[in-house]
Amino acid sequence: MNLPSSNKRYDLLQIIFGVLFISLMTIASIWIIQPFILGFAWAGMVVIATWPLMIRLQRILWGRRILAVIVMTLLLILLFVLPIALLINSAIENGVPLVKMASDPSKLHFPDLAWLESIPLVGDKAYSGWHALINSGGSALMAKVQPYVGQTAGWFVSQAAHLGRFVLHCSLMLLFSALLYSRGEQVGMGFRHFAMRLAGERGDAAVVLAGQAIRAVALGVVVTAIVQSVLGGLGLALAGIPYATILTVVMFICCVAQIGPLLVLIPAIIWLYWSGDNTWGTVLLIWSCVVGSLDSVLRPVLIRMGADLPMLLILSGVIGGLFAFGMIGLFIGPVVLAVSYRLISLWVHEAPEPQTEIEDITKLIDE
Questions:
Q1: What is the pLDDT along the chain (367 residues), one digit of tens a residue?
Q2: Which residues of 338-353 are buried (b: 16+ CB within 10 A; e: fewer)?
Q3: Among residues 7, 31, 201, 272, which one has the fewest Cβ atoms lying within 10 Å of its Cβ?
Q4: Per-residue exposure over 11-37, b if at least 16 CB sit within 10 Å of its own CB, e if not
Q5: CA angle at 309 for the pair 350 and 334, rounded to the nearest 5°
Q6: What angle do CA 330, 333, 216 make, to 5 degrees?
Q7: What is the model's pTM?
């Protein structure tokens, strides 16, 4: 009597060619959609972070999704497109005059800085040296600065390509955001379904945790940067600083990059004291202290509204993302690290913590 064999016979060539075909199709698909990946990822982060706001707008606008999508798209244009346009326009308008001014020291007008004489010990010497520099027409100073003017201009030209890619990804982000706003429930359920197919309930929980991490980064990093840059820009405008709008945009970029607004505010304070406006210089100094310390209070609160994430993780994601992906990495870098941190943390905490003391383990090793 022949018993049925319990061992299945596998066709090795069929398995190899099947895996090879699936791999080739996957690589080809990624290659085709590669230009859109960063834009879609950025759009997904924006939509996840602002989804509750879109739902509220839909309720206000008589339950019409299309009206809510239009309003949210206009808000994204105001938040992303207009600052970039102002930055580019200001760079074009002011770049050439600044280079001409730097190349011709006779066009520079230096302040008297009479307050230098009131500084103890070194005041008279500093005042005499400053006026010696003025009497020379600034040629001594510009002789040292001019070699770096060309290098700086060349660096900005080399960054034009990165800025162009950033504008392209920003445009794709707006397009994909509008699509995701209109079909958000279906897309979200599709991701959850795929995660369930991969890892069951654990995969579904991972998708939810990823959404929480994205919202935490958006609230903690972007919202804090908006608040700081708006308040800092308001202080610059009230103090009469020229080009306050473009400086506000630069301040926003610095805040997103975790550099802080003081990189813009401190030179403005120095300029006010330099020009002899001590009153507004003091006011802006006090206001800058408030704005500069705001992130230490606001950011942790906002981050914990979405998920409890270490600040070192956010900072590493911003800096690493900037080097890896350019300007768009300011938004993608911290999100990727935050999602990875949350998933790994969930996986680690599924196992119990070690209960054995280190001394007992050492004894066991010695035995």
A1: 455 555 566 778 888 988 999 999 999 999 998 888 888 888 888 888 888 889 999 999 988 999 999 999 998 888 777 766 666 666 666 555 555 555 555 555 566 666 666 666 667 777 777 767 666 555 555 555 555 555 555 555 555 556 667 778 788 888 999 999 998 889 889 888 988 888 777 778 778 877 777 777 777 777 888 888 889 989 998 988 887 877 887 888 788 767 788 888 998 998 888 887 888 888 999 999 989 888 777 777 776 665 566 767 777 777 787 777 766 676 677 777 877 887 787 778 777 877 767 776 776 666 6
A2: bbebbbeeeeeeeeee
A3: 7
A4: eeeeeeeeeeeeeeeeeeeeeeeeeee
A5: 110
A6: 90
A7: 0.66
Q: Two tokens at 338?
A: 């935050």
Both structure tokens of 170: 């920003």
